[in-house]
Amino acid sequence: MPSRRLLLVSLAALALVPGVGAAQSERVIKVGTLKLIHGITPYFYEKFTPAGYRVEVIPFESPTDGKNAVMTGTVDFGTFGIAAATLGAAAGEPLVIFAAQCNRGMAVVSGVKSDIKTVKDLKGRKVAIWPGSTQEVVILERLKAEGMTIKDIQPIRLPFSDMAPALARGDVDAYVGAEPGPGISLANGTGQIVEYPYSTAIGSLNMVWGAKRDTIEKNPELVRVLMEIHRKATEYAMSNDAIKVDMAVQKLGQTRKSVELAAPNVELTWKIDDEFIRRAKAYAQLMYEKKQIREMPNFDAFITTKFMPAK
Predict the structure, then answer these.
(1) How far, CA to CA in Å, does 232 sit from each of 44, 142, 261, 309?
(2) Could you give the 3-state DSSP secondary structure of residue 211?
(3) pLDDT at 147
(4) What is the pairing mode between strands 53-60 and 95-104?
(5) Which of 9, 111, 221, 297 is the least buried, fewest Cβ under 10 Å from its Cβ?
(6) Is the pLDDT of residue 54 over 90?
(7) In sequence order, what DSSP letters do the residues of 53-98 get, joined into one string?
(8) Domains of the chain
(9) What is the distance between the alpha carbons of residues 271 and 44, in angstroms, rounded to a whole number?
(10) Does the pLDDT at position 87 exceed 50?
(11) Which sign does the torsion angle of CA 227, 229, 234, 236 carry?
């Protein structure tokens, strides 16, 4: 058996060999995502990460937590709802949206035996809503379209992951949720879809990718690397539903049936185009009108298209 001294000498010699220990010099890119099927794309990043980089995925429960993680430097990049991003930018936070993450992924759900069949039927009912989420702004706008306000319902503060169980227990009459919550309620037979609420001015816009302005300005090459990884991973996941479902089942711990029911209501994406910007501005305008923000963000600084691939 080799002596301890010989072993140490051997290890020291290996350290001098080119390539040995190279992993230690990898640039670790920390990305934050939400525990939702429409935040599943980062789990495909490893397949498309170039040599010299390694991606670490950190999941968050709420959009606000994900956005704050970007602002504090806990992660380099984060994906969260357009609501959380707009709230931060309007408050003067140096947050920049550089890519899209997903469209759709929302639903208004009521109990399977409930007489709540439309948004108007929510009047007087206990409705779970996550404050500061994209879904909150969407349901406020849908209520307005039906001649109602938040005062016409009983809003119950709940994170997305608690909504489907709360509905199943009868703690709430309905919820404005994020997938896979609606898929779970359909799969276990406790819920029915009231509406996929995409008829407002913001359409199906939902989640975005953000970074600190310092990262955008001082380390654009890192942003380009992440952007290319994200684009490839998105196109890969969207071209193969089975792979997307498998990953969501693995990472979210949900049943296959619930994820399969949720998947058609999720469109993973990466592109910022004129339509994206139009919807983002419409969204901010709605938040401003509802006094959720005190002033509109400076969109020239808030959203950048400089990392979009050349056509």
Answers:
(1) 9, 35, 25, 11
(2) strand
(3) 97
(4) unpaired
(5) 221
(6) yes
(7) EEEEEEEESSHHHHHHHHHHTSSSEEEEEHHHHHHHHHTT--EEEE
(8) 26-104+204-302 (3.40.190.10), 106-195 (3.40.190.10)
(9) 17
(10) yes
(11) positive
Number of H helices, E strands in the chain: 12, 11
Return d(Cα 171, Cα 60) in angstroms, integer: 24
What's the pLDDT tens digit per position in 182-239? Answer: 999 999 999 999 999 999 888 999 999 999 999 999 999 999 999 999 999 999 999 9
Report d(CA 176, CA 138) in Å as an integer: 9
Report the C-alpha gap between 154 and 34 in whole angstroms. Answer: 26
Residue 12: the pLDDT is 45
Contact 83, 136 (CB under 8 A): yes
Tokens representing residue 259 in the block: 């994820």
CA distances from 240 to 120, 194, 284 (A): 37, 28, 33
Sheet containing 27-34: order of strands: 53-60, 27-34, 77-81, 205-212, 95-104, 266-268
**Quick one: pLDDT band at residue 3, thresholds 50, 70, 90?**
low
Residues 6+ apart with CB under 8 A from 8: none
The Cα-based distances of 98 to 37, 213, 304 in angstroms read: 21, 10, 5
Q: Which residues contact 27 (CB under 8 A, 6 or more apart)?
A: 52, 53, 54, 222
pLDDT above 80: residue 112: yes
- Note the pLDDT tens digit of each residue in 129-176: 998 788 998 999 999 999 999 999 999 999 998 999 999 999 999 999
Can you read off the two tokens belonging to residue 242?
């089975």
Q: Per the structure block, which two tokens stand in for 189?
A: 């037979």
Query: Encoding tokens for residue 245?
Result: 């479902």
What angle, 0 to 180 degrees and rounded to 10, lies between the N-to-C axes of helices 82-90 and 63-72? 50
